[in-house]
Design brief:
heterodimer; A: 417 residues; alpha/beta; Rossmann fold; 6-stranded mixed sheet; 9 strands; 47% helix; B: 302 residues; 5-stranded parallel sheet; two-stranded antiparallel sheet; 15 helices; ATP binding (chain B); AAA+_ATPase (chain B); MoxR family ATPase (chain B); P-loop_NTPase (chain B)
Chain lengths: 417, 302
């Protein structure tokens, strides 16, 4: 890692080593750069020669990139590795674990951070240790960590208390997590051996092949379809740490093709409502979240849940819930607006949704009671009320999401009202 | 009738059918007719998207073919179906007659005699009066596979039947696609069409529409009705009343022999303009009187 060869690379051995290292960095950043490709790349570079940086870039690009979403990562790693050694120092600084609440404001380009992490992984960093997380009110979880394996511990750990490394690990765990959902019957029919409706079209065509003899009756049955998911995610100040992780999770869900969910619509709200569905469709997660963040102007601001739900009900509800969508409402419910309005908008949302599931990170507190006015106004109108502050709770959510009888903690909390 | 040769002619032709049409809508209709491109109309319910197809068909003296979309609509209900019972009878008859020529039977069974044409196929057929007007209504209610299926029909104006081959329209039909936006329609389909968002009409146009549709309403009542509905649309309602509701309401008031609006009459007939309980509840009590006052105030200078 110590050498950053300029572009007039020396002959073979060094070049081979460099390309191999480069490929390892790509692999760490998530590109499928296997040994076969390294061999290809070395051959390709030898064949193409070093007439210019541009050629060199595109030669390697041709060998290592085969999906559009990998282009940004490749570009960043190429830049770091081959062009500008000093840039690494800059990235080292960017990787300093940020003290919570004092996020560094330098706008990292999409994939930049991942590229730097891939390159710097394992490098001795001359940096102070991560400051101890704020332990107020979380004694139980910290104690429990002594008896659990690392992954188990991470599962139960509150997102808010995770270090940057732990957050990264949690994000990886969440990216693997799916929201399995039961299909619902549609009005479209598909051929089936065990259906209960006769498919005359196929039956007659089959009989024609037999010269008009009717041997088999072809059957059809309703083809299942998957419901849509609509996620409304609170990004106000009190939720910021959770909403970042949960948006990561939503990105994974909306890009998991074939894992259920016909469509995933995502909205963020704080003081106003923002539709980020299109951004989540970007394949690279960093680019997607950066675009979503740029679009939502109200990150870490205040919360006006009632007004935002009103905007959603008026402008979007009929457009995204027309075909019966499951709604995930991710918020802590701390709202200073008029509770009557909030209650009315929640009722409207509930009426238009197939199922309304409230995910609330505050539920982590032992003895949480819905004393806040906003929570009391919202609670009667949800189908299910679940915690969402750790990997484990989101896993529970995934397991329960297609159960129509699951009410989570709703009954217990309603009793305390 | 030939297609109109100017935007004014389009407006005139639609106006003769009782469809009062703004300049913007007239322009896209004219373009759609001259370029032979489908017209994609989006807008709130009750602003006259479906009506325009009916007015066009009547104005051009063409046949109107309507394909009402619903979830689960598939090719067999939209394009064609074979008449299976008749085919079965034909097979049995041929068997009973004995020694049927298998090839001849097959040709006959999958020939035009046994073909049931559904709207899309009908629209591809030649017509003495000229290509028909094809209304694909509420496209947003279908599922995405059907939308994809429409791409061929709308860009090449042809449909394929395995047993008969590809049937292309000799003259492209006039296609009107409507959507209420209960979901987004795919860009690929929108790209093949001319797009227009049909908005609520302004006061004068709505007056003209009401006059065309409910001519028996007295001018004074019409003015109050339209002013009130226009005022209502500025309120924050879950479902704003469309033009269809205005016409309905005027007819309701006529049936009740009302000569002008009062808060009591409004309260009795609110169901004709507002279709959600939340909205109706909002207009209880003094709210209706306040809106009526505002509506009358807006009429004052005129």
């Amino acid at each position: 890692m110590a050498e950053y060869a300029p572009l007039d690379l020396p002959a073979d051995p060094k070049l081979t080593a460099n390309i191999t290292h480069f490929a390892r960095a790509l692999r760490k950043a998530g590109l499928p750069a296997g040994p076969g490709r390294v061999v290809d790349a070395i051959r390709a570079v030898q064949a193409a020669g070093f007439t210019g940086k541009r050629d060199f870039y595109w030669t390697l690009h041709a060998c290592f990139v085969n999906r559009p979403e990998h282009r940004a990562v490749f570009a960043q790693i190429f830049r770091l590795y081959w062009r500008d050694p000093r840039f690494l120092e800059h990235m080292m600084a960017a990787l300093l674990p940020a003290v919570r609440g004092v996020q560094e404001d330098r706008a990292a380009k999409p994939a930049e951070k991942r590229a730097a992490e891939a390159l710097l992984d394992g490098v001795e960093r001359d940096l102070p240790d991560q400051p101890e997380p704020d332990t107020e009110g979380t004694g139980i979880e910290i104690d429990a960590s002594l008896t659990m394996s690392a992954e188990e511990r991470l599962r139960a750990l509150d997102f808010e208390q995770m270090s940057t490394d732990e957050i990264a690990q949690a994000k990886r765990m969440l990216a693997r997590l799916q929201l399995p959902v039961k299909p619902i019957p549609s009005r479209r029919a598909a051929p089936s051996l065990t259906g209960h409706r006769i498919d005359w079209r196929r039956t007659l065509r089959g009989s024609m092949r037999q010269g008009g003899e009717l041997h088999d009756i072809a059957l059809r049955r309703p083809r299942p379809r998957w419901p849509n998911l609509v996620a409304l995610c609170d990004i106000s100040g009190s939720m910021s740490q959770y909403s970042r992780v949960i948006l990561h999770f939503l990105h994974a869900v909306s890009n998991a093709r074939g894992a259920g969910w016909a469509r995933v619509h995502a909205f963020t709200f704080g003081t106003r409502l923002t539709n980020i569905t299109r951004h989540l469709a970007q394949r690279d997660v960093d680019a997607a979240l950066a675009a979503a963040g740029a679009e939502a102007q109200d990150w870490e601001g205040g919360t006006r849940i009632g007004a935002c739900l009103h905007a959603f009900n008026r402008d979007w509800s009929r457009r995204v819930m027309g075909q019966g969508a499951v709604v995930l409402l991710i918020t802590d419910g701390l709202d200073r607006d008029d509770p009557d309005m909030l209650s009315r908008e929640m009722e409207r949302l509930h009426l238009s949704a197939r199922r309304l599931i409230w995910v609330n990170p505050l539920l982590r507190w032992e003895g949480f009671a819905p004393r806040a006015r906003g929570i009391a106004a919202m609670l009667p109108h949800v189908d299910s009320f679940r915690a969402g502050h750790s990997v484990a709770t989101l896993e529970d959510l995934a397991a329960m999401i297609s159960r129509t009888d699951d009410a989570g903690e709703k009954a217990r909390l309603l009793a305390t009202l | 009738m030939q297609i109109p040769n100017s935007i004014d002619a389009v407006q005139e032709m639609l106006g003769a059918q009782g469809y009062v049409c703004g300049r913007a809508l007239g322009t896209v209709v004219y373009l759609s007719l001259t370029l032979g491109r489908p017209l994609f109309l989006e807008g709130e319910a009750g602003v006259g998207k479906t009506e325009i197809a009916k007015a066009l068909a009547a104005g051009l003296n063409r046949r109107l073919i309507r394909l009402q979309c619903y979830e689960g609509l598939d090719a067999s209900s939209a394009v064609y179906e074979w008449n299976f019972p008749a085919q079965m009878v034909a097979i049995r008859t041929a068997e009973a007659g004995g020694g049927a020529d298998r090839d001849a039977l097959q040709r006959e069974l999958f020939g035009p005699d046994y073909l049931i044409e559904r709207p899309l196929l009908q629209a591809m057929r030649p017509d003495d009066r000229g290509a028909p007007v094809l209304l694909i209504d509420e496209l947003d209610r279908t599922d995405e596979p059907f939308e994809a299926f429409l791409l061929e029909a709308l860009s090449d104006f042809q449909v394929t039947i395995p047993e008969l081959g590809t049937i292309a329209a000799p003259e492209p039909p006039v296609v009107i696609v409507t959507s209420n936006r209960t979901r987004e329609v795919h860009d690929a389909l929108k790209r093949r069409c001319l797009y227009h968002w049909v908005d609520y009409p302004d006061f004068d146009r709505e007056m003209a529409i009401l006059h065309a549709r409910a001519p028996e309403a007295a001018a004074a009542l019409s003015r109050e009705v339209v002013a009130f509905v226009q005022q209502l649309r500025t309120e924050d309602l879950f479902k704003k009343p469309g033009v269809a509701e205005t016409i309905d309401w005027a007819k309701c008031l006529l049936a009740l022999d009302a000569i002008d609006l009062s808060p009591e009459v409004i309260a009795d007939t609110l169901g004709a303009i507002l279709k959600y309980q939340d909205d109706i509840a909002r207009l209880q009590g003094s709210e209706a009187a306040r809106l009526l006052d505002q509506a009358r105030a807006s009429l004052e200078p005129a």
